[in-house]
Amino acid sequence: MSPVTVDVGPLAPEDVVAVARDGAAVELSETALAGVDRARAVVDELAAAPTPAYGISTGFGALATRHIPTEMRAQLQRSLVRSHAAGSGPEVEREVVRALMLLRLSTLATGRTGVRRETAQLLAGLLNAGITPVVHEYGSLGCSGDLAPLSHCALALMGEGTVRDASGVLLPAADALAAAGLAPVELVAKEGLALINGTDGMLGMLVLAVADLRRLLATADIAAAMSVEAQMGTDRVFAAELQALRPQVGQALSAANLTRVLEGSGVLASHRDDKFHRVQDAYSLRCSPQVHGAARDTVEHAATVAGRELASAIDNPVVLVDEGRVESNGNFHGAPVAYVLDFLAIVTADVASISERRTDRFLDRARSHDLPPFLASDPGVDSGLMIAQYTQAAIVSELKRLAVPASVDSIPSSAMQEDHVSMGWNAARKLRRSVDGLTRVVAVELLAAARALDLRAPLEPAPATAGVVALLRSSGVPGPGPDRHLAPEIEAAVQLVASGAVLSAVETVTGELA
């Protein structure tokens, strides 16, 4: 895999995913390093001046009124990082920490923070060595940057704190650095603050969530198509001319996906001309493109916000190189990111909700068009997929709770200096749980739809949906039969959804879906 070049321009979202998830290496461009040097020269000049400059020769936050003498400024930086590395709770996932580190490195590369080139290069060195600082769940208010999470990363640059090496082994940062041939950095004026003042954690989780949700929403279209097919529904409502009457972009894309996935279905063909009994389907089938499409549009809005944030240089104070000064600002406030993180949790819950409703229709003989109750082999003796729907319902209920916005909350901090905060980190953390929940809900719908399609034999499903059934059957998920331990089958389906295997199986037949 080619290294990701960190330059003065914005990172592409796919670069963030490559470094965070796939372990891609990073390299700093010479242009970026030259910009780092220019900004550092400005900081050095201000540090030598008798006039106090925030973040360089003063305390921080509510303690900014104290002027710090030259001989204590290295201690100031060490104290800042150590005191702010105050996280608590479970470890944050490796991919999130790597995304956070990469995005901080990207801001350093803009030449607006005033760090030295060796400090930026050490951060790149940790990423390339696979060294991941231990970051904890709690500690960020999403304002003044993701302070505690970033501080735990800065602590590792100092050779302090705890990290995991490339193999996942927990060890002291100093030992990991030494094993990788890296020397810890002695932070100088401005560097500590520059390493911890940004929206990198919440932004990293946003970028990862957008990538996941794009795949998941296409997979939800596949699940909806299989449900329409197996419940003897109609695809006439997905026609392009009907979507054009309401020109919502995502809706049209989702409807087109359903149409392509259902192309060539013998199940649909068997009742296509029955206009008497099949007047119109239930909302959960008929309105799938409207719900999935609105979610798509929301994801693309979030992607736009993420793109702007990736193009940002977020630090406080920020170095204005051309003017030779350092200026305080409020760009570290996480509101833009927090709002869309919350928005995505809302649509994730709703897409899961409609998926669960489609699943439930399979299990009720009064609504499933002659499928056996609960898709059981011997109803009464067997319970079929009864409790799989319970699992879905439990997850959907949790997703509704997680859809409550975090960004409407604010708790003042730093002696009322930081009196309004975004809670964007909290919004990002709950969105990750929401994305996982949606993955599981869609997986259960696919299990039910696949079993129902098998039960429709000898009617032939569409080639694309038959591909999903075949994938499940070859991946440890047998077809209809007596009751068996369902949890492993659900987990196998979850992995097929999460990995993109379901989407790939369909696209082998249809070509790339929207």
From TrEMBL:
GO terms for cellular component: cytoplasm. InterPro entries: Aromatic_Lyase, Fumarase/histidase_N, HutH, L-Aspartase-like, Phe/His_NH3-lyase_AS. Pathway: Amino-acid degradation; L-histidine degradation into L-glutamate; N-formimidoyl-L-glutamate from L-histidine: step 1/3. It catalyses: L-histidine = trans-urocanate + NH4(+). GO terms for biological process: L-histidine catabolic process to glutamate and formamide; L-histidine catabolic process to glutamate and formate. There is a cross-link at C143-G145 (5-imidazolinone (Ala-Gly)). Gene3D superfamilies: Fumarase/aspartase (Central domain), Fumarase/aspartase (N-terminal domain). Contains an active site 4-methylidene-imidazol-5-one (MIO), which is formed autocatalytically by cyclization and dehydration of residues Cys-Ser-Gly. The keyword Cytoplasm applies. The modification 2,3-didehydroalanine (Ser) is found at S144. It is found in: Cytoplasm. The keyword Lyase applies. One of its GO terms (molecular function) is histidine ammonia-lyase activity. Keywords: Cytoplasm, Histidine metabolism, Lyase. Its EC number is 4.3.1.3. Belongs to the PAL/histidase family. NCBIfam families: hutH (TIGR01225), PRK09367.1 (NF006871). This is Histidine ammonia-lyase. The lineage of its organism: Bacteria, Bacillati, Actinomycetota, Actinomycetes, Propionibacteriales.
